[in-house]
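QA checklist item 7 of 12: single-chain prediction sanity check.
[x] sequence parsed
[x] length recorded as 308
[x] structure emitted
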Amino acid sequence: MEVFSDHGAAPAPLRGAAIALGNFDGVHRGHQAVIGVAADAARKRGLRLAAAVFEPHPRQFFQPNAAPFRLQSPGQRLRALAALGVEIVFQIAFDAELAALTDEDFARLQLSERIGASHVAIGADFTFGKGRMGDAHSLAAAGGRNGFSVSVTQVLTESGTDKVSSSTIRAAIEGGRMREAAALLTRPWAIEGIVLPGAARGRTIGFPTANLALGAYQRPRFGVYAVRVDAGGVRRDGVANVGVRPTIGGGDEPLVEVNVFDFEGDLYGRRIEVELIKFLRPEQKFENLDALKVQIAEDAIAAKAALL
């Protein structure tokens, strides 16, 4: 996969692609439908398949103090797009200059002059340009004036009723409904990050943990989860607590604390990805570390059963 993030015009080998355009946070089933339409256009016309994504997410620009909400890191999004056959990703920097563009100027400056798109696929509810002035109809008209065709994918629904959206998935994650989130994403929801140095309290009670900051991720329901961990290609089962560690006075900043089953080694400083498979119980405060140790042992048994 090639990633183009320069502000200038894309080089000739990257131009002329069929583009799926959107935020694509989560690359969920709805996004996959848009990418599938772009892929069909690419196949029929002998074009390369590309995606154009905004970074940062427009919501981060317009609401800088909003609660964390991202479903994926930029790296996770790239890998999910690559898995769908996307060959090129154009990153569109969302800043004050971009936010001020009219729909016509966005189509001309970004899609035509910078990216050189031959075809653009969007979802039916996609809006763009200053004040969200542009929609599918205006993009199709602008495409006719700027040399690219447009296809519009109808909104995908779950069971014919609820719209498949990033907001729906965030609500499922916030409620600890991981099976529901995974069904909409077509994969388990996962948190990726660098393992942080810690106080090694878990090791002293027989359950060493690898700790990750939640950062910009949507906050899941605090509690204990059955998880699967990818540590550089080695996948193992585990149990994790997500929250503020009330027994030890962990503070306000939540962490993912993962005990990886049957793992010997040091994960500090390594990038890992933790899939939250099933919510087991809410986070709770225990009287002492001995009581916490007993509960973690029970949680590990429950997690192993859930992961069978």
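[x] summary fact logged: The radius of gyration is 22 Å.
[ ] second reviewer sign-off
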